[in-house]
Write a structure and sequence with these properties.
The chain is α/β, with parallel strands linked by helices and 195 residues long. The protein folds into 2 domains: 107 residues, ATPase, nucleotide binding domain (Nucleotidyltransferase, domain 5), CATH 3.30.420; 67 residues, Nucleotidyltransferase, domain 5. The protein is built from 6 helices and 10 strands, in the order βββαβαβαβββββααα. A 5-stranded mixed sheet has the order 3-2-1-4-5, sandwiched between helices. A hairpin with a 5-residue loop joins β1 and β2. The longest helix is centred in the middle third of the chain and has 18 residues. The N and C termini lie far apart (51 Å).
């Protein structure tokens, strides 16, 4: 049996899931700052000890710099403490896997969105054909700009807009040392080191 804890905190809503052999034992969604509490609750609700985990899957972004770092730090810390391997999955790839043919669009702040590539562009520069279904926090935030160009954006409360952690688990490739996990930032962080 394979017991995997998956989570993504790259967007404004952190998602987490506990899966055994691909079957979802529990899922949660909250603010990124509550990620550790959510993970603890998932394990408690399933009656699972952290030492029973076989692997971790974490969303690598792109998304909020700070929120992406939260998820990676938690994955690295848990992986090292528990001696389990981890896999990283793009937040965009997880969103794209929610429904066939959708275009993932994550809010990048500064009047931009993250799209596959990955790259950061203005909502008016998103390459799409009329009828393209756009999902994600960027699709919700820039609904009017995307719909004006012929996109279809599901209602704001449609779960398709969340990078569900269960989708990350299904997309996970090779597992490796947690310290090897790398974020997908696309652009430089706003904060700069003092000289």
């Amino acid at each position: 049996m394979t017991l995997v804890l998956a989570f993504d905190s790259a967007t404004d809503v952190a998602t987490s899931a506990l899966l055994r052999d691909g079957d979802v034992l529990g899922e949660r969604a909250s603010e990124p700052r509550a990620l550790v509490s959510d993970l603890d609750a998932l394990l408690l609700e399933a009656g699972v000890e952290p030492a029973e985990l076989d692997g971790l899957v974490v969303g690598t972004g792109p998304g909020s710099f700070t929120s992406t770092r939260i998820g990676l730090a938690v994955a690295r810390g848990l992986g090292l403490a528990l001696g389990v391997h981890a896999a990283g999955v793009s937040t965009l790839d997880a969103l794209a896997s929610a429904r066939p043919g959708v275009l993932p669009v994550v809010d990048a702040r500064r009047g931009e969105v993250f799209v596959p590539g990955p790259r950061a562009v203005s909502p008016d520069e998103v390459e799409l054909r009329p009828g393209t279904v756009c999902v994600g926090s960027g699709a919700v935030r820039y609904r009017h700009a995307l719909e004006r160009r012929g996109a279809v954006v599901p209602p704001d409360d449609d779960p398709v807009h969340l990078p569900h952690a269960r989708l990350h688990a299904a997309l996970a490739g090779a597992f490796g040392p947690p310290e090897a996990l790398a974020p997908v930032y696309v652009r430089e962080p706003d904060a700069k080191a003092l000289a």
